[in-house]
Amino acid sequence: MRIAIVGLGGVGGYLAASLVKTSHKVAGFARGEHLAKIQTSGLKIVEDEKEWQVNLCAKSLQEADGYFDIVIFCVKSYDLEESCKAIASHIDSNSILISFSNGVSNADLLRELSDAKVLEGCIYILSHIQQAGVICKKGDVFAAVFGGDKDAVQKLSSVFDEANLRYKIPSDIKAAVWKKYIFISAFATLTTYYDANIRDVYENHYNEAKALLREIAEVAQTKGVDIYDEIENSLQTAGKVPYDSSTSMHLDFKNRKRDELETLSGYIVKEAKRNNIEVPFMEKMYLELQKRRIS
Ligand SMILES: NC(=O)C1=CN([C@@H]2O[C@H](COP(=O)(O)OP(=O)(O)OC[C@H]3O[C@@H](n4cnc5c(N)ncnc54)[C@H](OP(=O)(O)O)[C@@H]3O)[C@@H](O)[C@H]2O)C=CC1
Ligand SMILES: CC(C)(CO)C(=O)C(=O)O
Questions:
Q1: Structure ipTM over 0.90, yes or no
Q2: DSSP β-ladder status, 134-147 and 167-168
Q3: Which of 184, 191, 192 has most ligand 2 atoms within 8 Å of CB, for mutation?
Q4: Cα of 194 to ligand 2 centre, how many Å?
Q5: How many CB atoms lie within 10 A of CB 139?
Q6: Nearest ligand to the C-alpha of residue 78?
Q7: How many Å apart are CA 65 and CA 25, to the nearest integer?
Q8: Please, what are the domains in the chain?
């Protein structure tokens, strides 16, 4: 099969470097200095215990050619629409699309933009671009989670099996995606709002964290997803992460980089309004973070 990995950052770079070892034809799509470095020197992966380098067919999306059986989007959520449109002429209704971007509406967006077979998914990994051409992956955390059309799931899992990549196919994929989202939405919002790491938030703003998690679970309920049990689980996770751990949105705010505020906080406020429910904690923090971003 021909597989496209769109976005070769922390997530996509690691996936592409792993999938290139399979029998499939893998093309990676990137841009800027990162693309130039991958084209001239290959893609380097730095893990705790080892470093490895792969040669990867990497291009810009404008240079895409041919047909793709599988497209794995690994861009930030705000780049998903544009990158899906850019690859649209290289897929058809038999292609399989999946986004591993954080968020709970990525699959809906891909379905709006194409008539391909869209899988729902999310990913657990800790990785980032260390410098152009180099991806740094921390610890042993790795699990891709996906579900949807049975044949498509079977095809994607056979690819992950061949690459020796861990994955889960939960019986309820929507709940699984929300389970990842409730934690990252609440703690991305809180760590950014308080400019504090996850453990600080847990220790000093526990009640607010609980209230925010409850608001997110209420919005999930409007989608028919019951994740009230994840309120307690998320709090326990936050109480156990290493002291220096924060979220990528918090770091993006600190470094004045583009962030996923709309996906991680704004989405909850908008969906709550649409469904006539109150989310006062999330609304207060979202509006304040919007203001801070402009100033
Ligand atoms: N990194 C992690 O540990 C985890 C990340 N996630 C989620 O996964 C998603 C991806 O995150 P991550 O990999 O860290 O993000 P990165 O910013 O590291 O990687 C995304 C890459 O995609 C590139 N890109 C975006 N649009 C295009 C385009 N049109 N053409 C070519 N390249 C493009 C970006 O380029 P440029 O820099 O120029 O914009 C960037 O290099 C996010 O939603 C994140 O929240 C989820 C779990 C863990
Ligand atoms: C915390 C992490 C890395 C979890 O996978 C994440 O998704 C984020 O910070 O955006």
A1: yes
A2: parallel
A3: 184
A4: 17
A5: 11
A6: 1
A7: 13
A8: 2-169 (3.40.50.720), 175-294 (1.10.1040.10)
